[in-house]
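Late entry, written up from scratch paper. The run itself happened at the end of the previous shift, but nothing got recorded in the book at the time, so transcribing now.
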Amino acid sequence: MDLTIHETFLPHDDPADSLAFYRDILGFGVRKDVEHNGLHWITIGPVNQPGTSIVLHPPAARPDLTDDERHTIAEMMSKGTYAVLNLGTTDRDEPFDRVQAPGAEVVQEPIAHPYGRRDCAFRDPAGNLIRINELH
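Output as recorded:
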């Protein structure tokens, strides 16, 4: 079986802030930018991986959600407990420095764990936890 990751979804609550973060700070390319009925979806991805995308989506766009579920999602996003994205790089410090410079919320400074992984973590503008792992 030959499976690849095509798209994954992360919620956003401000398309301009999310676009500035992922495009301007992390350097992802914009694949699609779609607005419909006052809602905004932005598909982004690593420039050197055209087959892999992240869709930044309005979490309330799903018609099957109840008001209570929308409230719970908003609460979880504000706490940073709703979504996580793990990224990999050969130089963990350079992207961390780029993210930290404009004032992103740092969750974990770059460290080496006793089990061999070196990583750091921060939150994107919507509160999603972004972890950068150093690849060997």
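The helical segments are 15-25, 67-79, 93-100.
(Scratch paper discarded after transcription.)
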